[in-house]
Design brief:
With about 240 residues, the chain is α+β, with helices and mostly antiparallel strands. The protein has two domains: about 80 residues, Glutaredoxin, CATH 3.40.30.10; about 120 residues, Glutathione S-transferase Yfyf (Class Pi), Chain A, domain 2 (Up-down Bundle), CATH 1.20.1050. About 45% of the residues lie in helices and about 10% in strands. The strands form two sheets. Strands 2-1-3-4 form a four-stranded mixed β-sheet. Strand 5 and strand 6 form a beta hairpin. It starts with a strand and ends in a 14-residue tail after the last strand.
């Protein structure tokens, strides 16, 4: 039997691969990591190759040697299974609550993450969050605060869980855009704890060393058409999907 292999995208672009990677690493499951460059134009050729053995033709994908598991949520649930359920709360209602938070993230958090791309978390300068984005952040922080109060922290459901790892890339986005957490002290402490988690820090250290992947629509403020950021090295902007 071949050693399991996790196919992950470019680390400053692939938030879904980050989620799967965190869960598998935390579970103790041993695997080899296969980087897939998802920057344009090579992404089309590279993802077509993934499509030869994984129907969605996307990353992340876990090939166990016997089974191909695609979609980050399925990989994360597999990680919980192989860890003998250590990565979800024991209490059945707390577990359902954790899965609700995970499902909301999987559905896009009301498009908050689409407006603040994962790639932008690694830009040298950040645009200010809009009023609508601040409102969405507060709605999200309220959802984080509730389980932190109920279960006493330090993570969302006490011990670190899939819910924390599912939201880790969002925490990276919002923390690096200086989202205002002053009204949410438990959420602020939890976000910092998650950013300091050794596995999260390991992924981010690698991502921070990569060339930036520019989104043109991020560089223009809707209230002012002048570009907010420029590539000072004179390179042509690169956009991820």
């Amino acid at each position: 039997m071949t050693r399991p292999r996790l196919y992950v995208g470019t680390k400053n672009a692939s938030s879904w691969a980050m989620r799967a990677w965190l869960a598998l690493k935390a579970s103790g499951y041993e695997f080899d990591e296969e980087p897939v460059d998802i920057r344009r134009p090579q992404r089309f050729r590279n993802l077509a190759s993934i499509g030869e053995f994984s129907p969605p033709g996307a990353v992340p994908v876990l090939d166990t040697g016997r089974t191909v598991i695609y979609d980050s949520s399925a990989i994360m649930e597999f990680a919980n299974d192989v860890s003998e359920n250590r990565l979800l709360p024991r209490d059945i209602e707390a577990r359902a609550h954790a899965r609700s938070l995970m499902a909301w993230q999987h559905a896009g958090l009301s498009s908050l993450c689409h407006r603040i791309s994962f790639e932008s978390a690694f830009y040298p300068l950040k645009r200010p969050l809009t009023g609508a984005e601040h409102d969405e952040c507060n709605r999200l922080f309220r959802a984080y605060e509730a389980p932190l109060v109920r279960h006493g922290g330090p993570y969302l459901f006490g011990e670190v869980s899939l819910a924390d790892f599912m939201h880790a890339p969002t925490v990276v986005r919002l923390a690096r855009h200086s989202a205002d957490t002053s009204a949410w002290p438990r959420t602020r402490a939890w976000m910092q704890l998650l950013l300091d988690h050794p596995l999260v820090a390991e992924w981010l250290a690698e991502a921070d060393r990569l060339p930036h992947i520019w989104y043109d629509d991020y560089l223009v403020d809707a209230r002012d058409p002048a570009p907010l950021l420029r590539d000072t090295a004179g390179r042509s902007p690169e956009c991820s999907p």
